[in-house]
Amino acid sequence: KKLGIALVGLGSYAKNQLAVGLEQTPNCYLAGIVTGTPAKAEEWMKKYNIPKKNVYNYQTFDQIADNKDIDIVYVVLPNSMHHEYVIRAAKAGKHVMCEKPMANSVKDCQEMIKACKDAGVQLGIGYRMHFEPFTKEIIRMSREKVFGNVKFINSNFGFTIGDPTQWRLKKAMAGGGPLMDVGVYCVQGARYITGKEPLAVTAQFGPITDPTRFKDVEESLSWQFDFPDAVTVNGFTSYKTNIEQLFATYEQGFIHLSPAYSYGPIKGRTSQGELNLPIVHHQANMLEAIAREFQETKMFPAHISGEEGLKDMKYLTAIYEAAQTGKKISLV
Ligand code: NAD
């Protein structure tokens, strides 16, 4: 059976990426929507041929429990709302996909995991890079030690943020600044290259050059992870600098992805030359992989589980603590 997915929150990521991706997936489709805006509901029903019975608002959302067309609820709301909607979806007996960052606190992540476990539903975080061909290839090269052991990783993701009134600049909604939004990709990158967990972290906030935008959240942040086997990871994230790369140097070579994380084509090279791999639609590619895995095993892929989201949240929290205290924070 083709899996029916309901998107909760029809903002820019849902509209421009996930809904577009779901038009290209043989094993899953856009079956329903949850929106607080009636005009959006009309537009989406027409565009995607969604029956009225599969359209909910935030008040009627829990009735989704009775809708057999919906197998998976995909939460694409501002970060602070992930907790509530993942738990409501689980209580409605639906499998849940949740966007990154998983939530705004470790406690929220733990409650989301528990709610899904108690309800016997799957929980996945929208970590699309795990399905992306260049990323998969560098993970393979790292695991197979094509260039020997990894020694050092530099992982950066930043962009120039626009509208000063948006939720991404409000701590209560976003949980933090660029670290929560895009720095999480750098943390993930270090973890999937090494295949290990960090031992300790130090971190520093960058200067505020734009006090209008950065009243509430950091403008930029640098951090340093100690990983096992004396591997150092330098991370940097910013809402004022356009940068996107994942560089790793090994005993006998290097890999470099840039862009490394956004959905424009990923580009990469290693010390052996250019990487020539298929360019995919990230969201179609991820959703199709999840649908196929679920159809075969009744589970979501393990590397995007809620537990993985929780680990990242612990690391993000520790990075903030390290920057605030100036101390090295132990993670073990
Ligand atoms: P957005 O602002 O474009 O959309 C948010 C949606 O939530 C809007 O439709 C808005 O109407 C709705 N909403 C409901 N209640 C709201 C409230 N109280 N305040 C504000 N909005 C409210 O944001 P987005 O860029 O689509 O991001 C949504 C989520 O997706 C975030 O968690 C973000 O981190 C994640 N995201 C992931 C990727 C990725 O590549 N995986 C890319 C972009 C965004």
Structural features:
Gfo/Idh/MocA-like_OxRdtase_N; Gfo/Idh/MocA family oxidoreductase; 2 domains; 332 residues; alpha/beta; binds nicotinamide-adenine-dinucleotide; 9-stranded mixed sheet; Dihydrodipicolinate Reductase, domain 2; nucleotide binding; 9 helices; globular; oxidoreductase activity; 6-stranded parallel sheet; Rossmann fold
Please explain how this structure is put together.
With 332 residues, the protein is of the alpha/beta class. It folds into two domains: 3-125, NAD(P)-binding Rossmann-like Domain (Rossmann fold, 3-Layer(aba) Sandwich), CATH 3.40.50; 129-280 and 312-330, Dihydrodipicolinate Reductase, domain 2 (2-Layer Sandwich). It has helices spanning 12-21, 38-48, 82-91, 106-119, 133-143, 171-174, 178-194, 282-297, 306-325, and strands spanning 3-8, 28-34, 55-56, 72-75, 95-98, 123-125, 150-158, 200-205, 220-227, 231-238, 243-250, 253-257, 268-270, 273-274, 329-330. A nine-stranded mixed beta sheet has the order 14-13-12-11-7-10-9-8-15. Strands 3-2-1-4-5-6 form a six-stranded parallel beta sheet, with helices on both faces. The radius of gyration is 20 Å and the shape is globular. The termini are far apart. Bound molecules: nicotinamide-adenine-dinucleotide. Residues 9-14, 36, 76-79, 99-100, 126, 128, 167, 181 line the site of nicotinamide-adenine-dinucleotide (NAD).
